Amino acid sequence: MTITAGVAQRFRLINMTTFGTGIIVSLVSATGTATWVPMALDSADLPAAQRRSESAVQSITIGETRDFTIEPRGPGEYQLLVWGFPGDQVRVTLPLHVVASLAN
User: Fold this and answer.
1) Is residue 104 assigned to a domain?
2) Could you give the CA distance from residue 10 to residue 49 in angstroms, rounded to a whole number?
3) What angle do CA 9, 59, 92 make, to 5 degrees?
């Protein structure tokens, strides 16, 4: 997936498993764990007070959806990682390529 630096992107993460009560999702870059802003839980927008930038690591239970926005400041490579529980091996890796904005 390719996105543009400086442009907010909204992601909806969904746990569609029937067995993964605590799937862990994280967004990382070469410098470590990224940050994101939680926007919604189960399609219901969060109150403004809960929309604060936080470390991009989240547990998602069966049937749950969570929406987040990210706004990378510059070009680079990220990975969205999914694993079953803390200490488990990563089960899914989604590369996220950030390109320079046209304004730069």
Assistant:
1) no
2) 18
3) 70
